[in-house]
Amino acid sequence: MGDYISAFIIGGIICVIAQILMDKTKMTPARILVVFVTAGVILGALNIYDVLIKYGKAGASVPLPGFGYALAKAVIKEVDQNGFLGAFTGGIKGTAAGISAAIIFGYIASIMFSPKTKK
């Protein structure tokens, strides 16, 4: 039960930060997305995001900073193993499953529902 609560709290804090940025700044959602992914990369590279993952589990790994964290960790691992080339291959290898799942499930959702553009 404690894991669910900590995931809810950590994930909720991340979402609250995003909502505050949308409400109080003129940043577009796309810029907020970039800020969150970049923050995840930076915090992951500095091993700070590891603490959030330890306590927040899915609440920290599923949101956008978690994607940045996964990118950073995969690139660091690949660079350690393969040198400079790992900077280009690490992110692809480390996040391929998540990106593939997003594409596949997004496609399935678009088939099941009638997506429309905003007017």
Automatic annotation (TrEMBL):
Signal sequence range: none
- Keywords for this entry? Membrane, Transmembrane, Transmembrane helix
Pfam families reported for this sequence: SpoVAC_SpoVAEB (PF03862)
Q: Which residues cross the membrane?
A: 6-22, 29-49, 94-113
- InterPro entries for this protein: Spore_V_AE (IPR014204), SpoVA (IPR005562)
Q: Which NCBIfam families match?
A: spore_V_AE (TIGR02839)
**In its UniProt entry, what is this protein called?**
SpoVA protein
Organism, by scientific name, is Clostridium homopropionicum DSM 5847
